[in-house]
Each structure stands twice: as structure tokens, then as C-alpha cells.
Amino acid sequence: MVNGAVITAQFGDAGKDAAANRALAGAFPGWTVVQLDVDRLMAGGGGIHCVTRQQPVP
To answer: Kindly report the CA angle at 50 between 20 and 11, in degrees rounded to 5?
Structure first.
């Protein structure tokens, strides 16, 4: 959850992705639900959490 949005994965099943989007929109009224294609992340063993971690200061 970030600044009025819920970031979540999509998995390429249009029906189930849409159902998940509706469920999240119902759980978070007034928030924007953003689904991201995470196939490449998942293939490498990561997830959304992994790429949203803090970045070190150089």
C-alpha cells in the first residue's frame, strides 16, 4: 500500500486477475488498485516486496 494505492501482482489469468482486482477494490474503497506483471520477478525467485525495499545511499 502506497500513497492511496494498493500494488499487487497479476498472473496472466484475465478472469482471476479481474476478480482479485474487484476484491481488493472492495476491501480498499477510494484506493487505486494497480496490478503488475511480475512473471520476470517470480522467475528469479523474487516478488514485489523484494523490489520495493530501501535503496542504500551511495
So the answer is: 30
Assess whether 55 carries a catalytic annotation.
Answer: no
The domains of the chain are located at 5-51
**Are the C-beta atoms of 6 and 31 separated by less than 8 Å?**
yes
Please name every residue paired with 34 in a beta bridge, in sequence order, or none if there are none.
7
In the set 36, 50, 51, 52, the catalytic residue is: 50
- Summarize the confidence of residues 23-36 as an average pLDDT: 96
Output the average pLDDT for the chain: 85
In angstroms, the CA 14 to CA 58 distance is 41
On the 0-12 / 13-18 / 19+ scale of CB atoms within 10 A, 13 is exposed
